[in-house]
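Researcher: Can you fold this with NAP in place?
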Amino acid sequence: MSTPWHVLGAGSLGTLWATRLARAGKPVRLIVRDPQRLAAYQAAGGLTLVEHGQAQRFNIPGETAESGEPISRLLVACKAYDAEQAVARLAPRLAPGAELILLQNGLGSQDAVAAQVPQARCICASSTEGAFREGDWRVVFAGHGYTWLGDSGHPVAPIWLDDLVDAGIPHEWSTDILTRLWRKLALNCAINPLTVLHDCRNGGLQDHHCEVATLCGELTELLERCGQPAAAQDLAQEVERVIHATAANYSSMYQDVAHQRRTEISYLLGYACKVAARHQLNLPHLNQLQQRLIAHLHSLGLPSD
Ligand code: NAP
């Protein structure tokens, strides 16, 4: 039997991956938070994926971190702020040569996870697929996209990419995954916080062209300073293009705030400001943006980390 996929986190992306792998006949196990969540999952009878308006349920076996089976392949599908602790609980179960696939947005959580499991190979992912939870254990596949996977320390692709082909998960092995993660982080920093502060869709930033351009200038400086010149190339043009192409959308940070959910600020804008400080780079507009966003989150009673 082929190596099971253990999926940590039964949220939007975890469900999107788990259900497509199960549909392709791959062995999948779902790891949920605690025994209460496990009982709720079992009562629901599985995970439901809604695609093109059609719902399909998959009775994927569930377990908690404390279950005994060794793990060889772990898809980490928690939010960035939960990943380190969630993986630390699983460290004793990792088999020799285990591989982790980290789906977290932004930067910072990947290094924190890798430090918890020095014996394992950590592969980072950057995805443009979109999904959201319609309720517990039920996820809507909202936006088709692509997932880039890569390991900055080891350029050879893993054999299980074949499972993704069989499961119809569009992907590409990337030898410059850090560049992709930095580029996505920079796009996020230039767009998402401003959509929250101006209370607008992405397209609303067309009225704040100067503010966006100033941030892009500082982000370009940051990327160049931390050895990511490819991620810096034509950043301002791409930000303008994304604002235009996604004008009708609400950014993920906007949606988190609108639903009173914790944001991933520490792994996005917060990470950018931290790295700038480490390089003694003075980026006043980026720092001011962070302060404004933190104050706004506090005013709404939301965490700012
Ligand atoms: P999500 O829907 O909030 O799902 C996260 C899941 O992790 C939840 O089900 C949560 O459990 C679970 N979890 C947290 N701690 C856990 C633990 N210790 N043990 C087991 N499960 C645990 O998040 P998401 O939208 O899938 O996002 C995951 C990551 O992918 C984020 O970094 C996000 O930025 C990135 N991403 C998401 C999308 C998207 O379209 N959704 C697209 C690209 C990138 P509970 O259900 O018990 O709370």
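Model: Folded with NAP in place. The chain is about 45% helix and 20% strand.
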